[in-house]
Amino acid sequence: MVRSFEIPTVLSAEELKNKGFHRVVKICVNGVNALDRNKKTTLAKITALGDIIENALSKCIDKFPRINKKEDFFPELIDLVIGIDNYKKSLGAIRWAEKRIEKLKTEAIKNVRRSKDVNVINSVRKSFYGRLSSVINQISDELTFLQGCKNKFKLIPSIDPKIATVVVAGFPNVGKSILVSKLSTATPTVAPYPFTTKGIIVGHIEDEWRKFQIIDTPGLLDRDSDERNDIERQAVLALKYLTHIILFILDPSETCGYSIERQNALLESVREGFIGIPIIVAESKNDIIITKSDNINFSAKSGDNIDQLREKLISELRKIELKEGA
Length: 326
What we know:
By secondary structure, the chain is of the alpha/beta class. The protein has ten helices and seven strands. The chain has a seven-stranded mixed β-sheet with strand order 2-3-4-1-5-6-7, sandwiched between helices. A hairpin with an 8-residue loop joins strand 2 and strand 3.
């Protein structure tokens, strides 16, 4: 599922070391004599420091989403926003560091337990501190990268690819955004989106106990394909993984600022980019003009034929749901 992620703050290498050493500096354990006290205190410090760093790294790994499927919207999205290879590499480096520190901790504890020399015990502790710091320094770049990833994940909208979805297309000002708000039973959410100049609009169409998604993506499917940059073209490809039906809006009044010829050219471009995906064509602003075409016409402003358009969409979405569940 594509959703909002609750990823904790990723500490830098220095912050991570400071966190660990700050917590263990005051640890002191009583013993029957000086050697016993030193040994128990050292064991407690090594154990605590190792556990603190391991837990922080493990939490970092566990909270970031897994990328398992190859044919899915989410991996495509991650690749566009972050770079999937670097993402996997960084998580792998953090996992390596976690395991390496666990091994260093185990070895240090073993060496302290079998020693009866205060100098050796202190030497083991200092060596462990140094080697642990070295491991953390080695993943400094990866920690910085993942902190940036955390911020970029905030741009990913809450979309569930398992729900049958309508993606709305058409030039700006043809009435897409207001239509989404009319078709949705609740106020649609506007979510940041990494490929567009505006946030995408995500609404839900209620159908008895079911619900479907309806999405408008300003900046993607409202321009000619040759006007999109490489990232936007890839984003359009990514959309194919969650698009079940496209609702293409034409404005025959041309008050949107685009001729009907150019709008039809965009429609053909969308057809070519989403081969095999059903496209419902609807004409907006029927309060200004109604053509003789067979396309359903409506007015988002007055609400005319909005219910009929909703019924048509629901009818098609039910077919998608039956196919998906078969």
